[in-house]
Amino acid sequence: MSQTSLSVSINDFQKRFQENIQQEFKQLKKPNILIIGRAGVGKSSLINATFGSDVARVGAGKPVTLSYKCYSSPDVLVNIYDSAGWEGGAEGEQKFLKDTEDFLNQRQTANLEDRIHIVWYLVDAPGARFTDFDARIVRNSLKDIPVLFILSKSDIADENQIDSLKNVIDESNIPNQVGIIEVAASPMMKRGKLICEPYGLDEVVSKTLEILPDLLRRAFIAAQQVNLSEKDKETRDIIIAATTAAFWVGFSPIPFSDTPVLLAGQVGLVARIAVIYGFKPVQVVTSFVGGIVGGVSTAVIGLLLADFLKFIPGVGTSLGSLVDGTIGAILTAALGFSFRELFREIVKSNIKGEQVQYTEEWMQSFLQKRFQQEWDRLLKNKKLAKKLDDYEPLDE
After folding, report:
1. What one-character-per-residue DSSP string does 203-262 give?
2. Contact criterion met (CB below 8 Å) for 267 and 291
3. Helix, strand or coil, per DSSP, at residue 350
4. Are 272 and 17 contacting, i.e. CB atoms less than 8 angstroms apart?
5. Backbone angles phi, psi at 227, to 5 degrees
6. pLDDT at 354
7. At what angle do helices 360-380 and 284-301 cross, to 10 degrees?
8. pLDDT reported for residue 285
9. Nearest to 148 by CA among 72, 203, 227
10. Strand 68-73, strand 76-83: pairing
11. Does the pLDDT of residue 48 top 50, yes or no?
């Protein structure tokens, strides 16, 4: 591989990365989540806490019917249908019931992507009130959709109120109920301090993932911003698949022909990982990453022994390529797990509410150190090429 073509590859990384991350967004299929609850029950707090304030900012929601708004954007990997609540009294309840049925008749088509995939039904925990009307909506209007009950504001409800509410819901014998989860999306403040940490949101995410069709899971994992372990599991699977592919790319009898293909694959891998951790094409972090991927990848590629082993007397092409495939796999895994840890570190601080500015210099330093650690450990542990499923990255 000539120095000229290597330079072209380096200069092309930024563009490639942006194209890849935009393509990832376009390919992911978004789940449709319907959120229902009376006025003041905390729907906005739940949406913002789970998906970030970007969702609520999208045009303040596009009206779909009198009772429902849709929050959707090319940069948000979930479609939220939010109910406006309903007025008390028989007339207000009847209007809301009819509007809900009309709305669902439009959505529940044969096309999986158009359907409502799960309902988050919010009930005010301190009020401890689940009425016959609530049961009627869920049992009749929502009968064909999984319904997850969310007991909002549970931080300010006592145990008797919560237990009573759970009993009433369970005794309603709702066949499409998939769970009841206590949630404090935005706990109350007392003298300028939280009375408790937010809780329950990670359970909402995990339960929703159990319900969603496989086609929609990855977009939801990327969209949610509270359950880090789900992002970790998804990206681990992505890295394992990419590493296996890299091994077979490296198993090539043509000297140097595999290097550009490996580099292109690594750009796509890092883009997929970035999207899963919630980074968008327009964010500052992603503008840094393309160049960093190129710098790390090409610096290491230049040092790889595998290409040269093909020409050493006594080392056959088949053996040389096998070594090259192993090295290519190790390189891909080390890069994947290093960038995964970088994105994980940033998201973890965001979840904790830490206001940290991550500069390009900090990211480069973090990756250089992390990559060297993963590379040394993987290179020493050659079993990677045979069974990456057994490999545990550092500090996992």
Report:
1. HHHHHHHHHS-HHHHHHHHHH-SS-HHHHHHHHHHHHHHHHHHHHHHH--SSTTSSHHHH
2. no
3. helix
4. no
5. -110, 95
6. 77
7. 40
8. 63
9. 203
10. antiparallel
11. yes
